[in-house]
Structures are given as C-alpha cells and as structure tokens.
C-alpha cells in the first residue's frame, strides 16, 4: 500500500502543486474579430514548449477558428506557464491543514455548487479522481463537468501554494505587519478563510445545524436559460 506524502510543518519544500500529479490549471478566454474561445484544462509544466504550439494549432483546426487564434492561444498558455515556473525552485511552507474549497460553476446546461474540506498536506490527493467520483455520486452525465470541477479545485490549490511561497519569503525577511506565515488564516478569501467557515478556533468539526452548507447542489438548466446566461456573460465581457 502506498504511504501518504505529507507536508512537514517544520521543513520547507520546493514549490509544486500539492497533488499527486504536478498539473497546473490553465484558463483561456480569447476574443478575436468577434469570435470568442473559452476553455479550461490542466497542463504538465514539464512538457516541452513545442506542445503548446501543437495544442493551439490542433484546437484552432478542430474548432474551425480563424488562424489568428493560434498566436493568441500560445501566448496565453505560455504566460500562465511562465508564472508557474517563476515559483519553481523557491521554498514553500504549509502546515498540515484542512481547508474548505468551493465549487460554483456552469458547464453547458449543468450548474454545480458545492463546498468540502481538503487536506493540502496530502501529496497523494487527486482532484481528477475526486471530480469523477463526485459526478458519479451526483448522477451528472455531462462528461465535461468532471474536468471543469478538477480545474476549479486545482486553481484554489495553486493559489494556496503560491501564497505559501510569499508567506515564507515574508517571514524570512522579517517584515513587520506581514500577512502571517499561516496563509490559511487570511481574511477576505472565500476559499481559504477558515474563520468564516469554522469559527475563530479553526475547528473542522461542524455542528449538525450547519450540515446543509456542505450539501452539493446540481441544477439542469433549460436551453432558454442557458441562452439568457450566455447573452448576459457576453454583455458583461464587453
């Protein structure tokens, strides 16, 4: 049986995603000449940069997008990879901690809202497997929902990891008034604010009256409702 790999509460480690696979979330929202392309997926930062170009060309061909999208897709993916790689080699220090993660997304006609506890010190965690199991348990048939949930989880874990680098750097610099080496107790972040969800002591034990907060919600929208939401999103984007 494979043993769990946990972050030490004392010794820092080199920056990486706090999951079994070091896959990073990529989100694209590109508009060229009135055509818009939106997508979200995970990427292996160890893949050669040539794969980004191949991916962009393949995507443009499959979706019949104008050739100008190739350059835009490549630039956006490379910028996000560069941001991730800028943290590589730096120390990160995250105490063993259970944090609440939130899901609130719409994929095609399916809306999913959920929140749950995640052990960020477990390096064997698998957001993709979790998402597949969640979709199965909730009888979600759209195959695009699972990957979208996994990306949303990884985005929050990525934020946790990068914040831990910054917190450790600040702690070492000895800055006065710093935000605190314990990233997870920072107020104002809905994904990480333990005080908001668990009270001032940060307990993960919830009272029975609060159980409804952790009940997932799945709504299936009509085509008319989806059309109205798409129109509203397009208007907001402009």
From TrEMBL:
Main location as per UniProt: nucleus
Pfam families, per database record: SNF5
Keywords from the named record: Nucleus, Transcription, Transcription regulation
GO CC list: nuclear chromosome
One GO-annotated biological process of the protein: chromatin remodeling
Record localization: Nucleus
PANTHER family xref list: SNF5
Similarity remark: Belongs to the SNF5 family.
Name of this chain's protein: Chromatin structure-remodeling complex protein BSH
Organism for this UniProt entry: Ananas comosus var. bracteatus (red pineapple)
